[in-house]
Amino acid sequence: MDAPAPASPPAIALHDVSKRYGRHWALARLTYSLPAGRSLLLTGHNGSGKTTLLRLVATALSPTAGRVEVLGRNTVSDTNAVRQEVALLSHASFLYEDLTAHQNLVVLARLLDLPSPKDVADQLLTRVGLTRRTESPVRQFSAGMRKRLAIARLVMKKPAMALLDEPFGELDPAGIQAMEGIIGELKASGVTVVLATHLIEQGLTLCEERLHLQEGRAVPA
Ligand SMILES: Nc1ncnc2c1ncn2[C@@H]1O[C@H](COP(=O)(O)OP(=O)(O)OP(=O)(O)O)[C@@H](O)[C@H]1O
Questions:
Q1: Protein residue with least CA distance to atom 1, ligand 1
Q2: Does the pLDDT of residue 134 top 70, yes or no?
Q3: How many other CB atoms are found less than 10 A from the CB of residue 160?
Q4: Is Cell membrane among the key words of this record (predicted)?
């Protein structure tokens, strides 16, 4: 008889994870496992710890105690490997301010060694609805335009896991619709999506799993 195929490691495994800022515990003894192939909706009031958790998974922070694993890899001892797999869409968008949206995307496409960087950039700008202001430097962009450009960058990177911190924030209705479409496409292409949002209805249609935080602890939603 053939041996059973080894099970995939969880997409995310949190083992008794705590994070402290000064004297304040932002996350307290969180244990959770997101099965491979599932997407996660992260909910909770302002200050409940959602961004902190996303930043721990993205390796932008280290836990004060406990262990975070992403696709079976420890975020502290195997940081570089985890960084290859994850991309974070956050409030800070890490864009080149003096370049246009198109130039920002071409730079990334070249870094990623993609064929036809300008065409790839054009296609993504159309996808996120940023075709009209392609000649303006990003420093002149509104918050919603930055969000659109940031998701275009994330899509170009093709991460195994997309960590989306308030992806609908600052977007107009057309932008929200475009973002929902893009998240759906990411999922359809096999990307694990972790979505922190206050738009719970949208989140529930996009994610199969939910983790609700209250003062840094997991509680029933
Ligand atoms: N750099 C920091 N220094 C000190 N305290 C912090 C820092 N970052 C977050 N906190 C605190 O940690 C707690 C959790 O914050 P976090 O940003 O993770 O919450 P959140 O659920 O993402 O909130 P929101 O819905 O407002 O984005 C809050 O009490 C916050 O004030």
A1: 21
A2: no
A3: 15
A4: no
Ligand 1 contact, 197 CB (< 6 A): no
Name the CATH superfamily housing domain 38-59+85-219: P-loop containing nucleotide triphosphate hydrolases (3.40.50.300)
Mutate to test the pocket of ligand 1, among 30, 43, 50, 214 (most ligand atoms within 8 A of CB): 50
Range with lowest mean pLDDT among 56-60, 89-93, 110-114 = 89-93
Give dist(CA 39, CA 61) in Å, integer.
22
Q: Which residues of 95-121 are buried (b: 16+ CB within 10 A; e: fewer)?
A: beeeebbbbbbbebbeeeeeeebeebb
Please report the ipTM that was assigned to this predicted complex: 0.97
d(CA 184, CA 56): 24
What is the residue extent of each domain of the chain?
38-59+85-219
Q: What is the mean pLDDT of the chain?
A: 94
Cα–Cα dist 12/15, whole Å: 10
pTM value is: 0.94
